[in-house]
Amino acid sequence: MQSTLTQFRLSTKKEIGYHFLFWFLLAYFSFLNFNGSGPSPFSFNKPDTLTLFWIGVFSVSFYFNYLLVLPWVFRQFGWKRVSLGLVSFYLFFVGFRFLMEEVLMPHFFNFSNYSEGTPISHYFYDNLYFFTYPLIPSTLFWLIVFSIRLQGNHAAISEEKRTMEVRFLQSQLNPHFLFNTLNNIYSMVYVNSEKALPAIEKLSNIMRFTTYDSQKELIPIQEEIDYFNSYVELEQYRHEHGFPVQLNLGIESENLRIPPLILSPFIENAIKHGVLDPHSPLKINLGCHSGNLLFEVANKISSKKKDQQGGIGLENLRRRLQLSYPNQHRLELRNEGGYFKATLEIQL
Fold first, then answer.
1. CATH number for the domain running over 171-347
2. Residue among 298, 306, 289 nearest 332 (CA)
3. Is 166 a residue whose pLDDT tops 70?
4. What are the residue boundaries of the structural domains of the chain, listed by start?
5. SS3 of residue 104 by DSSP
6. Model confidence over 3-60: pLDDT tens digits?
7. Can you give the pLDDT at residue 345?
8. CB-CB contact of 53 with 100 (8 Å)
9. What is the dihedral of CA 334, 340, 342, 343, to 10 degrees?
């Protein structure tokens, strides 16, 4: 599977495409004229020999700066490197232009750009202006590509960090629940209780879910429902008389996918901190219509202080909701008539 960082990185193919676009636009504005009259509104400026040699000087100098000077300058950016890079590019441009226009062109075409006897000092002075022609566009182009690449890397790193943080938050199973359940199953097996095998199966389903399915980015909502049903049934086995659960489901589509362990923490919190007896039902309402998910859990408030070491916990869940649904969710916790009510609304 392709990593997130590679997915966001500017590919060589795209960068080459940007170069083709740059040269196409440069040629378009340099050699194509719009006349506005005549049989053809456009005319093509045929380059002469001097122009062709200048194109060679321009393009080679452009990539000397783009491929060698600028990467070296920005590897450890500093004004000393900027100065050395600028001087090295200037010397390269002057030397290469002299080779093309004052050596090769006279040799093959019997004429040069500068008149014979031009002092070398004038040549260096004159090219203080002309060397900016390839310098400025190559630098701007490199900075644009560098900025695109940098933004892509920042986005990839942020996404990778977010993914790792979500997976870390998802992976935290309450050890107290696990120890208590194992002790309870041990007792069932010891007395040959008929509930022992179903309890082992429920625990196996929970462990499979937290080990594998919880690492996925999205899961079918039914898998989350099966998970918290198994969790509730195991907790019911631990209580001698059990406790009633009022579960109301109204899901428009079974294909709905949500992040794993986004609903279950509310139920875990209600069981850990609420009153669990035959007269105090645990109320769970889950509905999803037109892309709007509404989840409500209500439990009677206990006056006894219970275990505070939640596995995922509500604070953990708040952070996950901020990562997965920024500005797309509403979480409300309140006390009403002796009941603690948690309401979660998500715009999917």
1. 3.30.565.10
2. 298
3. no
4. 4-165, 171-347
5. helix
6. 444 445 677 888 899 999 999 988 888 887 766 665 666 677 788 899 999 999 999 9
7. 95
8. yes
9. -70
